[in-house]
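wait is this the right file?? whatever heres the structure
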């Protein structure tokens, strides 16, 4: 057994998540107990450095019977650790009545993670945010007359009971017990005194929490610090933000997230509540490993601002963070979800029902008006578990992080290019180097969201004692890649290193860049991809991007063509899609919209979302679905124009959407089994709405229309 195979077998994060076949493992009695420590570089599992992929998923936003399948999808995507909020008001909406049943069953979710050998970081609150009502703090808590998120007796008393209840759910499931819970986060986006966070940790430990490490969000900087080593600070960055008050296309400082830099924190996260963030390295950061917990896997839409996120946005962010020195990529979100129904009774003053979404009228988090049901987040795995393009795109990066963790983790980052840039700066190629001794990786990012960066000509690198390629090359516009230098016998390659399995090294050919591989004293030029069936040199295989994204992945509709080892779509999938397309639902407009609603500005001085009363005046379409359409795992795809829309099953709200040009989706298997009536309500677009719509949204004319209905499979 070679050293690489030993790592795959022995390390939890390897064996549990990305096996050589990438198939879900069967249920196990317990997770193998391993020692976990950290230093300034990385986490260390039983003496082996790991570079985890952490994916955020909110179990209480997903039906319980879907948990196992969705955890397995995350594993197949390369996620090696799950992060999950425990929203206080999801489990104690009524004071003293804890509800851990159904999709709120934390213990049930943790048991599945244990069986699937998936480590979990629990984000405990009491404040979580997560775009939920009051940031997760129950309504009744605001009647107690105490300040929230402070060291006062009343608030800490109720927080203690919350933590005690959470502990009862995870008892016996901590890492030391062979369970999945490897760490816990205290509060979120906190900027006050470190003593408050330490008070939360003391409460947790007194109750029985005993975990390998604890975390906090590393932004903004605390007024007073926590003692060193008590909590690892975790950072983040996003491609865009629904929270921006501006209605311009490229508002905020998000362009900075597309450039390599030593500065770990973000100047753009939660600006609506935290204000302008200073771009500086917080004191003492260098002594901690560089980890993220909120690297944008997508972005939600708020009512006033509706970003349209591209797969390249997420991939570029990940490349940049890795190249800047991060040794844990934590995506927020990796899996979208749906807000559960509130258990609170009664209606709001305007006649609307009580919902668990954040809006400008809620307490503690009155920053943004969010959809009442959907929390899709345009994530790699969407609201209904659909696999979006960046699920596969990011996966090839996760393969690299997994197979080369021990090599990559101790490498320091250096930044040959300027770190402080302006929006759309096209003056130079953005790149960084991670290196140790004479080995390294060159990270390239010639991409910035919604900016047209040019191809960079006459590019040649001189790093780690190696100058390459032999002749200067052109890096195409939009190129994002990682080149190895003195790695596994390869002196250099102008192709991306993807994986190493069973002694075979896999490289991805980068579109527009001639592949040059220097190995064994030779320089192979203009190498053509031959797939996984035939090496281009000894144990070196060169594959195209599609094959790299699906490497070692077996799934319905994807096969490896025997002749050249490239990825091909199966004919059966095409036939299946044709069959589903033939099941096109019909629809009929049964009611015209009753004029246009008056858009009011909320307490945050941005447009307020419509109320239940507003939707009573919306245009109404009756949707007709045959029994065949409701069989199996199918999605209803709704193409429409309008301000926003809601879907009702027998009069009950089941889904909603803020229009931004993307289709409105609904997982048909989640409809009531005896559903008799399906209605779509659409509010019309208005002239000069105080809303940011992306360029993909058609807002050229007022009004609304249902354009098309389709039945599609759950992999887009």
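ok assuming it is, sequence goes like this
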């Amino acid at each position: 057994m070679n050293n690489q195979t030993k790592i795959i077998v022995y390390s939890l994060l390897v064996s549990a998540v990305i096996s050589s076949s990438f198939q879900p493992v069967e249920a196990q009695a317990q997770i193998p107990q391993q020692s976990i420590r950290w230093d300034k570089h990385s986490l260390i599992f039983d003496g082996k450095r790991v570079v985890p992929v952490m994916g955020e998923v909110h179990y209480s936003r997903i039906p319980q019977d879907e948990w196992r399948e969705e955890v397995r999808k995350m594993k197949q995507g390369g996620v090696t650790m799950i992060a999950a909020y425990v929203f206080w008001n999801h489990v104690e909406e009524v004071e003293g009545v804890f509800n851990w049943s159904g999709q709120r069953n934390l213990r049930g979710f943790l048991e599945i993670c244990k069986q699937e050998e998936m480590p979990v970081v629990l984000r405990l609150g009491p404040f979580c945010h997560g775009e939920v009502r009051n940031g997760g703090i129950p309504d009744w808590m605001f009647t107690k007359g105490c300040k929230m998120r402070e060291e006062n007796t009343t608030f800490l008393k109720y927080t203690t009971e919350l933590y005690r209840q959470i502990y009862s759910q995870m008892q016996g499931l901590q890492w030391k017990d062979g369970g999945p819970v490897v760490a816990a986060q205290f509060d979120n986006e906190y900027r006050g005194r470190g003593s408050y966070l330490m008070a939360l940790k003391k409460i947790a430990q007194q109750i029985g929490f005993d975990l390998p490490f604890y975390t906090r969000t590393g932004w903004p900087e605390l007024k007073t610090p926590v003692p060193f080593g008590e909590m690892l600070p975790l950072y983040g960055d996003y491609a865009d933000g629904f929270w921006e008050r501006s209605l311009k296309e490229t508002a905020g400082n998000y362009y900075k997230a597309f450039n390599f830099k030593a500065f770990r924190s973000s100047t753009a996260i939660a600006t609506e509540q935290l204000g302008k963030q200073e771009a500086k390295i917080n004191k003492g950061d260098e002594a901690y490993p560089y980890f993220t917990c909120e690297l944008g896997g997508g972005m939600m839409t708020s009512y006033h601002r509706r970003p349209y996120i591209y797969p390249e946005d997420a991939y570029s962010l990940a490349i940049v963070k890795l190249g800047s020195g991060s040794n844990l990529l934590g995506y927020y979100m990796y899996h979208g979800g749906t807000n559960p129904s509130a258990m609170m009774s009664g209606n709001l003053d305007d006649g609307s029902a009580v919902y668990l979404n954040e809006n400008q009228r809620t307490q503690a988090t009155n920053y943004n008006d969010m959809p009442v049901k959907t929390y899709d987040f345009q994530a790699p795995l969407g609201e209904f578990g659909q696999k979006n393009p960046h699920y596969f795109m990011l996966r090839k990066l996760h393969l690299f992080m997994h197979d080369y963790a021990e090599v990559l983790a101790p490498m320091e980052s250096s930044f040959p290019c300027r770190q402080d840039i302006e929006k759309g700066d096209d003056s130079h190629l953005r790149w960084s180097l991670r290196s140790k001794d004479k080995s390294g990786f060159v990270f390239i990012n010639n991409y910035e969201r919604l900016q047209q960066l040019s191809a960079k000509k006459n590019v040649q690198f001189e790093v780690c004692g190696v100058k390459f390629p032999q002749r200067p090359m052109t890096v195409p516009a939009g190129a994002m890649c990682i080149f190895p230098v003195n790695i596994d016998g390869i002196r250099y390659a102008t192709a991306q290193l993807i994986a190493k399995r069973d002694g075979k090294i896999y490289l991805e050919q980068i579109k527009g860049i001639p592949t040059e591989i220097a190995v064994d004293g030779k320089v192979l030029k203009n190498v053509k991809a031959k797939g996984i069936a035939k090496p281009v040199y000894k144990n070196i295989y060169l594959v195209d991007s599609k094959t790299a994204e699906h490497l070692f992945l077996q799934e319905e509709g994807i096969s490896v063509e025997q002749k050249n080892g490239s990825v091909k779509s199966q004919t059966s999938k095409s036939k299946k899609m044709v069959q589903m397309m033939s099941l096109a639902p019909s629809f009929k407009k049964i009611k015209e919209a009753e004029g246009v609603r008056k858009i009011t500005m909320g307490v945050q001085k941005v447009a307020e979302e419509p109320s239940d009363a507003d939707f009573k005046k919306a245009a109404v379409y009756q949707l007709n679905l045959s029994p065949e359409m409701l069989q199996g795992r199918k999605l209803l795809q709704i193409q429409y124009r309008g301000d926003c829309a809601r879907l009702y099953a027998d009069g009950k709200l089941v889904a909603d959407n803020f229009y931004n040009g993307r289709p409105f989706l609904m997982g048909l298997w989640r409809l009531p089994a005896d559903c008799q009536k399906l209605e779509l309500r659409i509010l019309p677009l208005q002239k000069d709405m105080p809303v940011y719509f992306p360029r993909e949204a058609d807002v050229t004319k007022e009004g609304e229309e249902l354009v098309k209905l389709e039945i599609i499979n759950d992999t887009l």
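Residues 393 and 569 are 17 Å apart (CA to CA). so i think its the right one actually
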